[in-house]
């Protein structure tokens, strides 16, 4: 998840909005990261989860990376019985959606504070917090 948020930051303008959404779908959990970044051309979408694949391979590209992050994310998600997909439009941004099977935990180990209206406690994460982990 941290890698998806990091990518959203890396490929978006400084004042862009990045939306992280978690939805409990009873039998699974859906997590999405949506950005207003540069987007990904359709021809690259089927390959971006391949190891070492980079959309921009030029030496003067704006963002660094080895091209392994999305491949790793996909492998970990699939090990947990889930799946990941992406929708993107050039110059409009991308939405990465993860679906994972739900797991029942006993209430004592639940660490998320839930309110009576069903909302959950939110935390604010600064850009520097992501890279200091």
UniProtKB/TrEMBL annotation:
Q: Which PROSITE patterns match?
A: HIS_KIN
How would you classify this enzyme at the top EC level? Answer: transferase
What Enzyme Commission number(s) does the record list for this chain? 2.7.13.3
Keyword match Transcription regulation: no
The record's section on Gene3D superfamilies has:
Histidine kinase-like ATPase, C-terminal domain
Q: Which residues form the Histidine kinase domain?
A: 1-104
Q: Which reaction equations make up its catalytic activity? A: ATP + protein L-histidine = ADP + protein N-phospho-L-histidine
Q: Which InterPro entries match?
A: HATPase_C_sf, HATPase_dom, His_kinase_dom, Sig_transdc_His_kin-like_C
Please give the Gene Ontology molecular function terms for this protein. phosphorelay sensor kinase activity
Regions crossing the membrane: none
Q: Which UniProt keywords apply?
A: Kinase, Phosphoprotein, Transferase
**PANTHER family tied to this protein:** HYBRID SIGNAL TRANSDUCTION HISTIDINE KINASE C, TWO-COMPONENT HISTIDINE KINASE
The entry's protein name is: histidine kinase
Tell me which species this is from.
bioreactor metagenome
């Amino acid at each position: 998840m941290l890698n998806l948020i990091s990518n959203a930051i890396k490929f978006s303008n400084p004042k862009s909005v990045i939306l992280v959404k978690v939805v409990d779908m009873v039998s699974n959990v859906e997590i999405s990261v949506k950005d207003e970044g540069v987007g990904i051309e359709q021809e690259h979408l089927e390959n971006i989860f391949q190891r070492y694949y980079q959309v921009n391979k030029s030496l003067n590209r704006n963002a660094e990376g080895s091209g392994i992050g999305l491949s790793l994310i996909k492998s970990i998600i699939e090990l947990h019985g889930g799946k990941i997909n992406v929708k993107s439009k050039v110059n409009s941004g991308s939405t990465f959606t993860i679906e994972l099977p739900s797991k029942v935990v006993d209430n004592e180990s639940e660490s998320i504070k839930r309110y009576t209206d069903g909302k959950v406690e939110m935390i604010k994460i600064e850009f520097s917090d992501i890279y200091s982990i």
